[in-house]
Amino acid sequence: MIPSPRPLVxxxxxxxxxxxxxxLLLAADLGSDGYSTxxxxxxxxxGAAFWVVNLLxxxxxxxxxxxxxxxxxxxxxxxxxxxxxxxxxxxxxxxxPGELVWRVALLVAAFPVLAAGIxxxxxSHTGAGPTEAAALAWDPxxxxxxxxxxxxxxxxxxxxxxxxxxxxxxxxxxxLLGPAVDLAARAMRVDLRQSGDPSTPDRA
Length: 204
What we know:
By secondary structure, the protein is mostly helical. It contains eight helices and no strands.
């Protein structure tokens, strides 16, 4: 189902902003998010390409979230494709700085961009991507800002055990990004929960 213009604009803009934030995080080179760490660990362990593992794990997480009545939608597909394309495009323009102070600056800048992007695209209520769907599947009873931290933390731990590296950026994502998304959603007055959540009435 094609969403109406306003949700569609929110979805596209949100994914573009989110992709830019992910690129800033990666360019800082101080540790990626927990989900990517898990994918990288699985890729290193199995020898499969990163994109293949990312696709398979994404499908599994979305399917498991659907069991908790967080159903995929057009936004799920758009998020997975458009964010990846945006990350590649932005990384083609910016490079990892040589000096640590500028890398830290990139890391700090990434957080409000990531938070705004996630809040915008989830606020379109067109479907969540794998990481957000896994977190939303447990809201309620666990608020998104904390369930998101659990998902990111679990991914980082599993990825590290599988041989992937973590850094200060990974730790920052685990503890700060969930609350930052919640704050951004409140500021923009959008509801993060998707149609079909256990305690949320379906939207038209």
